[in-house]
Amino acid sequence: MGAIFNGLLIIAGAIIGQIVGKYLKENTCQQLYQAMGLAVIYIGISTMLQMNSTLNLLISLAGGTLIGAIIDLDAQIVKLGDKLQQKFSTKNPIALGFVNSSLLFCVGSMAIVGAFNEGLSQDYSVLLMKGIIDGVAAIVFTAQYGIGVYFASILVVVYEGLLTLMATFIAPFLTEYAIGQLSAVGGVVLLAVGLNMCGFNKFKPMNMVPAIFVAALLAVIFHF
């Protein structure tokens, strides 16, 4: 359901963007984005409270971030975005709008954390919040690029839906303890996302994503 809500909110934002987007000042959009960032910080902190083991949290964040930094997931995502933009760097605003908005909506830690939260614990609040943020962004993108943003909403539903199904598949193999610990580490990642949205821009949340999977593995090991 979270992926569907996310897609519908993007469509709603695109509709608003077609109607009133051109009248919104850039400063207004920035303030809306920062407000959403504060909401993400709140969700991150509340999710972190599900933590069962501080030791697991520390080891997961250290080990997972080390893996992400060595691979440099953040840089890999940037390179992917650059390649796609070069490939579709055409005067066609529909193609440009689809590529740019798809990168923003799909490539990020909130999509992964949100989809896994729903698949593991039926909590789609993160995807709902992400949908609101994406909807605000869709207003700006649609005003600038047009209907290409609508097509991006389809990709979001498919992508997040597959991640949710993946999490649902592995859920029976995880204990309640493991799911809680995984969610807590995901909350830390969301906190980093929210701080970046508010203008700090000193974190690389994508490099922290492997910590979520490390937390699940450690939780199983600690349990036994």
Provide the descriptors you would attach to this structure in a database record:
224 residues; 0% strand; mainly alpha; 11 helices
Please give a structural write-up:
This protein is mostly helical and 224 residues long. 83% of the residues lie in helices and 0% in strands. The chain is built from eleven helices and no strands. The chain has helices at 2-20, 26-48, 54-71, 73-87, 93-106, 109-121, 125-145, 148-170, 176-197, 205-208, 210-223. The mean pLDDT is 82.
Q: β content, as a range?
A: under 5%
| Rg over CA atoms | 18 Å
Report the mean per-residue pLDDT as an integer: 82
As residue ranges, the low-confidence spans are none
Element string (H = helix, E = strand): HHHHHHHHHHH
Structure class: mainly alpha
| Strands, count | 0
The major pleated sheet works out as: none
Gross morphology: elongated
SS element count, helices:
11
Residues in helix, %: over 70%
| Distance from first to last alpha carbon | 33 Å
